[in-house]
Amino acid sequence: MNEPLREIELLAPARDYASGQAAVDFGADALYIGGARFGARRAAANSTEEVARLVEYAHAYGVRVHATLNTLVYADELDEAARTARELCGAGVDALIVQDMAFRRMDLPVELHASTQTCNTTPEGVRFLEACGFSRVILERGLSLDEIRAIRSATRVPLECFVHGAICVGYSGRCYLSRSQSPRSGNRGECTQACRLPYDLTDASGRVLIPGKHLLSVGDLNLSDRLEALIDAGVDSFKIEGRLKDTVYVKNTVAHYRRRLDRIIADRPGLVRASAGNSIPDFEPDPARSFTRGFTRYYFDARKPSQEGKLYRVASFDTPKATGAPLGRVAKTGRDFFTLENRAETLPGDGICFLYRGELSGTNVNRTDGERIYPNRMEGILPGVMLYRNYDRRFSSAVERSRVRRTIDAYARFEWNGRTLTLHLRDETGAEAEATLPGPFDPAQNPEKMRSLLRSQTAKSGDTVFAVRNVELPDDIPPFLPSSAVNELRRTALDLLLRSRLDRLSRKKPKKEDTSFPCPDTRLGPEYNVTNPLAERFYRDHGATRIEPGLDLEATTSGSRVMTSSYCIRRETGQCLRGKTEWKEPLYLLRGTRRYRLEFDCARCLMHLYDESPGDKRP
User: Fold this and answer.
1) How far apart are CA 150 and CA 234, in angstroms?
2) 4: number of CA atoms within 13 Å, CB side?
3) What is the per-residue pLDDT for 309?
4) Distance between CA atoms of 47 and 564, rounded to whole angstroms?
5) Is the dihedral of CA 86, 92, 95, 98 positive or negative?
6) What is the Cα–Cα distance from 152 to 135, expressed in whole angstroms?
7) DSSP 3-state of 436
8) How confident is the prediction for the chain on average, in pLDDT?
């Protein structure tokens, strides 16, 4: 018996209907979008009506839509959360991405996916979620390829992995840094990105080791050259981060990863893409020409202090902002112009940036004259300064104007029995439909002309999702039909083919929970984020005997661990404890009145932050 084909899914962000439509058009196999509430990106909320509209558009191509309900729910919000979830189910979404285990107790009719906010880092943790009925588990961004392999070998649940975009430096769901500095919490959809702020690094004596740098701000993930390794490791869904990004970013990034995955799928007979249709962008995709803080594989290839004798850096201490792609180094300057050491085409309106007095500075290109580039201002542009292009006007305009039509190949066949004419349609996925035109008909006076008319009119698929690639005609002499009758027959058949496609895309049923499967821990600390009675009941059903309230319920984080991370400041700066180090512990991060003690777990290669800021301690 032949092995079933393995579906490979490209999962794209949808800030709203427009960006979701763009993601579909440029090749996404699935989308994730926020509803009106309880999504981890509060600024990317959408009404149920907008979600339903996007579902209708996406489902025509077999593109599935996952709704994000991945924040913690408080006790007095449970009814609203359940109502929101059911409204999204009514809108036709295919799955709900959740963090709070309360949703596991709401008897919802769709698949539940365990958000990366559930901190999925170990085989034991993922196996537990699988046993609890989650249909998919979204992995932590900070995992290495070996760690992903270990999870796959211990589980069978489909795995989703981020491959592109911003990286949360703390383990998702267990970072309270934002909450430690304000009432806003990442676990409630209001992260302030406190990790992007500048901090001083000090030692035990109070000596400042590194002043005023963005010590926790890591670059953006780009695993586009490691997709095949992820497929081999057992990853099924490849996720692009960016629900707050614009449509230019979405089009460009989706097109780039679509092209990469299609090449892999074409070379490996056992793989198939998870949706239907083809789209050919009218620009050359290049993620480096959209929003980027500089790309990194993070710790995908293992956590190592150095690579080829050099520090393996994943952070950008100088700026948390998007720098774009390198443009070149300044060769010489005049009063109002500069030239580059290398030849690089620039256009009026291009944005350029550079480091000046320790901070990122920028300007725009006003005009060019040969090798001379005239910016709006020259301050900070000096010989030897490295320039970056953070806005590529020509590329961004081309992507913004791009209007790609995604189409599903369909094949037409006419049958004529002397009384009725039937049009059969079959699309690339095997969906079929037919429409019949009953007689009587007059014989065609010019059979060849009639054949030509049937071919040309049937191939006109208009604004449908289909592209009719071949029209097969019978050997019998066809009857005479006016163009209007052929067009009506084609429209009817295409409408029925679309219905056939939608009928085949059935919603997958949620999996059953094995309540006898024990939780990996029986004593749950605040990091388990239990903030309501339903979540508490879930964990007690799985053997938890002691459950502390989630940290988001506390008045203060002072005295608590507010971050666990694969990232390590010691490793990043060449001061790893496994080698030579000049820094005496404990080390601290300081910003204003905020003070965080760093703890280094060298056995597991992790860094922890503890809030030791002045204030009331937890009881």
Assistant:
1) 10
2) 3
3) 55
4) 34
5) negative
6) 14
7) strand
8) 93
Q: Which amino acid is at 18?
A: A
163-205 pLDDT, tens digit per residue, is 999 999 999 999 999 999 999 999 998 999 999 999 999 998 9
For residue 555, what are its two tokens?
Answer: 């008045």
319-375 pLDDT, tens digit per residue, is: 999 999 999 999 999 999 999 999 899 999 999 999 998 889 999 999 999 999 999
The Cα–Cα gap between 363 and 10 comes to 36
Euclidean distance between CA atoms 119 and 140, whole angstroms: 6
How many Cβ atoms sit within 10 Å of the Cβ of residue 413?
Answer: 16
Residue ranges with strand state E in 286-404: 295-296, 306-307, 310-311, 325-333, 338-340, 351-356, 359-369, 372-375, 386-391
349: region left, alpha or beta (phi > 0 left; psi from -120 to 50 alpha): left
pLDDT digits (tens, 9 = 90+) for 484-533: 999 999 999 999 999 999 998 888 889 999 999 999 999 999 999 999 99
Report how far residue 119's alpha carbon sits from residue 129's, in angstroms, rounded to the nearest whole number: 11
Inter-residue contact 137 to 120 (CB < 8 Å):
yes
3-state secondary structure of 344: coil
Bridge partners (DSSP) of residue 367 are 374
